[in-house]
What does this fold into?
Amino acid sequence: MALTKEQQLQYISHLIGECHKCDLYKTATNHVPGHGNANAEIVFIGEAPGEQEDLQGLPFVGNSGKLLDKLLNTIKVPRTDVFICNILKHRPPENRDPLPQEMKVCTPYLKAQLKIIKPKLIITLGRFAMNYFFPEESISRIRGQVRKIIWQELPLTIIPVYHPSAGLRNGAMLKSLQEDFLSIGQYLQKN
It folds into this structure.
């Protein structure tokens, strides 16, 4: 009997919980594999878990998550309809930036999650998540744009936006985030 998508994602979560390919697990309280609807049409990808995410084992549950919830409400997409994850599956110490080697070892987990879910749309949250898929680009240049790529042999449609934490720190970036989410809402209505 074939495993359901939920069971497959639980298995990936188990593998992440056992992962020792980098040292992040040593300082993390919990692994944060991702959370949400296994049949989601939209997957949000951030860079790494923060303090609250590490404590709860869930992505985007702190202040950035509260802002993300508000942004989702503006486009009438319930959080229960999406899947939210990060490139890194453990919190970096002191919330430092992800290291290239850490992102590299987490790639198979993210790829497996995307292959299971098969989303119609990916929203990257922040510079690191955007650069993960578009290493030569600047987020300020391509934010809000629909990009179609082949990544790790997977056809993906991606819209990069600023990270919600940037919106919390910077009013201009918050305005850009709000504009980009309105564009995402329009894209979803057409597709």
Remarks:
- The mean pLDDT is 96.
